[in-house]
Amino acid sequence: MPLPKDKAWFAAKTYGWGWGFPMRWQGWVVMVGFVLAIAVGAPLVKRGAVFFVAYCVALGAVLMAICYWKGEAPRWRWGSDE
Q1: How does pLDDT run across 13-60, given as a tens digit for each residue?
Q2: What is the distance between the alpha carbons of residues 3 and 27, in angstroms, rounded to a whole number?
Q3: Which of 23, 39, 49, 78 has the highest Cβ tally under 10 A?
Q4: pLDDT band at 82, cuts 50/70/90?
């Protein structure tokens, strides 16, 4: 369940659907972990690009799940705070 703005790790985007940059240190830890996990998985390219793409898609799904769980509620926004 998405969190209220004062407790969310990830801010909702001003325009469009989804999340922007992290608002709390916990969110930054998640983002750094995501980037490091992609870097650690880079040797999968030697086995084939398909393996690396599948790995990145799985990491992206985990990141989206964390953003949904610990971020502001996702909805389409047109630039207003409401």
Answers
A1: 888 898 989 999 999 999 999 999 999 988 888 888 898 999 999 999
A2: 13
A3: 23
A4: low
Q: Is 67 helix (H, G, I), strand (E, B) or coil?
A: helix
Residues contacting residue 62 through CB under 8 Å, at least 6 positions apart: none
- Count of beta carbons in the 10 Å neighbourhood of residue 81: 7
Are the C-beta atoms of 82 and 22 separated by less than 8 Å?
no
pTM: 0.82
**CA pair distance 34, 27, nearest whole angstrom:** 11
